[in-house]
């Protein structure tokens, strides 16, 4: 039986609890495997077995049956590759809803959409700062011996496009993108290897007005999906805090990106491990103490005391909070100097969205990166932006019961009551569709009872029956499924 | 200078004529490189040089400057990987327009959207019928020694999802997808390595009503983008024609898929080469003659004469044309038995969209594939569908001057007239955005002249000026850019 055979390959996977990256994920173990939140199922064992079978199929060509690569060992693995997701229609409706919200916010802010290939030259992502994102690059050599990578993030592609346009690009440019990003890591924790990310970036604005505008967009997204500042907040700081402290202690600027990447792991690996990694980098103990105590400040006043009121960090952040008040989202922001973000390229304000209960990873993150173009060999331009993934926000909405479940629906279901009436029913479906209606045309011989249940399942508002006697009069029967009314109408008046 | 440095890497590419796959492409050589129709530019030489530099960067780590992988040899390659495209905002607006049409037609037909990973297990695509699509598989081994491939088409993933759902999938299922597909070929002709494809598939309907419905959707798409049956048509046949002829000549059914793949190349490689490939496969000369003469029939009457009126091919196609008449798209169809399609898995009706002038490749193609699930080791289910790429349709629309150029536009441009008014302007932008308007907020100190030009460039309908004296009264100045009118209004009444 189909189901039995289906389970042969992925059996072990079904018995494994869902092991997402969030601490709350174990609660979701009972959900449907194919859901938005679900991991690629196949356990190591299952995947290896299946791929071994496929491998044999390739080498022993005689065993391959036409026209596909299925071997004589049974069914192909019906699960997507480890760490990736399928989007069944119910998942896709949710994805379309979320991406629609991303796009609506971007449009409200006057941003233009761009995209770049999911496969880029590896060189675009090679950085040596020890970031998780570049350590886990999904890279390989193509058949032309070129080093390529599935993009781990969208910002380097944006920078490449900006450099490609060069001086012909009108500034400021306000661009957004929604794209799939990939990583490869060998850990067996069951983290996903792909996610979608929404990015908004502003090129050419050097003031914190850019960051304030980006934060306003993040807040608008939160509001649109039903979250309030009691549910989520955005931690804000500036890399200039760390930079000032480091320069006070005489740390050379070359170490800056690496120090940031290490300090970013404070929450994850703890103070002791961060101290030891900073020491390995050659940072002096007194500097480490200074850096980490600056990370524990809780107000801009304390920061001004530490760095002086003329410090750029203090001025930027003070201005940012003023603007936030103007926009009306000040209550969403929290000054937190321990936020430095794990990407090497940030140079100024950095921020990350968080759930107030503190159960999940960062919801989104971003900041200013004024020297990325220069690092690629171009002329620098002020740039700021954020990345907002599709995973944590959905977990959060699910946790709080705010995740919508958009239904599939059509306007009309058209049913020919016998085979000879199919051409007539086709014409009626055509007419309705041209008029802007969504029409499910029943393509097989089905009983009336089936048609009613089918129309109900599709949340149809009408059932249009094409029967022989009415059709002789040029008419069809229209059943209004909300009003439980039915009437015979001329087919050529149907709208 | 930025532009000069930009051109250093891709210089040779700019001098090469655009070499798309269509015979008309040389006409487009003067267009912008980054356009929808444009190829990835970098010539072999340019690409290899750049990647060599990146490779050295990886091995000689000391040469890498923080925080990116840029070497000391200059700018990174700003072109996307060979054979891939960037989507600048103007390209993205066109793509969104086309994908929007794909989705609108699918919705009009009551289809539900799905998606699957762009990266699938290689086994899903391994077939031995000599198809171009599987010969050019963009496959590689991941770091876990798994054979994976960037999907060359969407149908095998659909089949995998259908098998994964098994008997719990309500039939008929009517699904669509819009996804990127990849191929890898070493030829230097400059063909693209990726394109997007729109698929619509019906699972569980065995009659040609399914094919007729799919053809209706293709026709609706053509109509929506402004094409008529004088511009394009759809060639229709059935694999059962070839099958009947082959069985009349006693050819074993195992060769069927391979014969189809060879015969499909008739237009491309010519009769002599097809005859020789069929002979290589062991097909007898008399059979070859029989097959090829059947391919030159021009009417269903001739087909009935050859195969007999009870032949399934004749009955299917007769029924299909009756349904086409019912739908009202009969004039778009052309019976052409030389259409067999180049995919191994088709089993019944096959069709392909073509431009009446015959200048381009097939616009779309599809048909029935009732045995694909079985080939994957599952229970067969009747399936029919089509793939419709994003390349040829755009070429055709461009050729015929019907390609739209959707502009970027916002509703309002909000301009604070001095820095102290930025928080106020931010609040006004917020208010307008919450009210559903698309608002570009000017984030830098700009002159009024710039603001007017900027608003014009963004096709804004209003310019909202936040000036000190009006703001003291709680007012802003609104300029209606269509009516050339201006008035001072209370900020809190602004909508």
From TrEMBL, chains A, B:
GO molecular function: ATP binding; histidine-tRNA ligase activity
Annotated residues for binding of L-histidine: 153-155, 183, 197, 201, 341, 345-346
A GO cellular component entry from the record: cytoplasm
Record-annotated Aminoacyl-transfer RNA synthetases class-II family profile domain positions: 82-416
Taxonomic lineage of the native organism: Eukaryota, Viridiplantae, Chlorophyta, core chlorophytes, Chlorophyceae
Biased composition annotated in UniProt, kind: Basic residues: 1-15
UniProt catalytic activity: tRNA(His) + L-histidine + ATP = L-histidyl-tRNA(His) + AMP + diphosphate + H(+)
One example of a Gene Ontology biological process annotation: histidyl-tRNA aminoacylation
Organism of provenance: Pleodorina starrii
Presence of the UniProt keyword Nucleotide-binding in the record: yes
Record-listed E.C. numbers: 6.1.1.21
Protein's name in the database: histidine--tRNA ligase
Family listed: Belongs to the class-II aminoacyl-tRNA synthetase family.
Residue ranges of the region described as Disordered: 1-26, 63-83
């Amino acid at each position: 039986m189909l189901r039995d055979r289906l389970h042969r390959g992925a059996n072990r996977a079904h018995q494994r609890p869902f092991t997402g990256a969030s601490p709350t994920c174990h609660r979701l173990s009972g959900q449907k495997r194919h859901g938005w939140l679900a991991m690629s199922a196949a356990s190591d064992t299952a995947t290896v077995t299946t791929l071994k079978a496929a491998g044999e199929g390739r080498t022993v060509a005689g065993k391959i049956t036409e026209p596909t690569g299925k071997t004589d060992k049974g069914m192909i693995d019906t699960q997507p590759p480890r760490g990736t997701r399928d989007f069944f229609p119910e998942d896709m409706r949710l994805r379309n809803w979320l991406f629609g919200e991303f796009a609506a916010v971007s449009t409200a802010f006057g941003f233009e959409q761009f995209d770049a290939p999911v496969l880029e030259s590896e060189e675009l992502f090679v950085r040596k700062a020890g970031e998780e994102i570049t350590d886990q690059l999904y890279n390989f050599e193509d058949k032309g011996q070129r080093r390529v990578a599935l993009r781990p993030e969208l910002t380097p592609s944006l920078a490449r496009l900006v450099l490609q346009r060069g001086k012909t690009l009108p500034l400021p440019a306000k661009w957004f993108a929604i794209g799939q990003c990939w990583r490869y890591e060998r850990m067996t924790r069951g983290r996903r290897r792909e996610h979608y990310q929404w990015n908004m970036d502003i090129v050419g604005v050097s003031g914190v007005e850019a960051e304030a505008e980006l934060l306003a967009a993040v807040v608008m997204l939160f509001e649109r999906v039903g979250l309030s500042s009691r549910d989520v907040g955005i931690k804000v700081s500036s890399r200039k805090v760390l930079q000032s402290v480091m320069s006070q202690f005489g740390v050379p600027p070359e170490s800056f990106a690496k120090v940031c990447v290490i300090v970013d792991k404070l929450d994850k690996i703890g103070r002791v491990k961060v101290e030891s990694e900073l020491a390995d980098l050659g940072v002096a103990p007194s500097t480490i103490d200074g850096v980490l105590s600056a990370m524990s400040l809780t107000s801009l006043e304390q920061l001004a005391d530490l760095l002086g009121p003329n410090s750029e960090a203090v001025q930027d952040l003070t201005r940012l909070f003023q603007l936030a008040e103007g926009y009306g989202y000040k209550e969403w922001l929290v000054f937190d100097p321990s936020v430095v973000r794990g990407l090497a390229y940030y140079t100024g304000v950095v921020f990350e969205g968080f759930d107030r209960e503190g159960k999940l990873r960062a919801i989104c993150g971003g900041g200013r990166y004024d020297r990325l173009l220069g690092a690629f060999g171009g002329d620098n331009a002020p740039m700021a932006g954020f990345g907002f993934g599709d995973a944590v926000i959905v977990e959060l909405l699910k946790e709080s019961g705010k995740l919508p479940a958009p239904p599939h629906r059509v306007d009309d279901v058209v049913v020919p009551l016998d085979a000879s009436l199919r051409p007539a029913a086709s014409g009626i479906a055509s007419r309705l569709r041209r008029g802007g209606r969504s029409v499910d045309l029943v393509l097989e011989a089905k009983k009336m009872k089936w048609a009613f249940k089918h129309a109900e399942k599709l949340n149809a508002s009408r059932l249009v029956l094409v029967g022989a006697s009415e059709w002789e009069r040029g008419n069809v029967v229209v059943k209004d499924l909300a009003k439980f009314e039915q009437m015979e109408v001329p087919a050529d008046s149907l709208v």
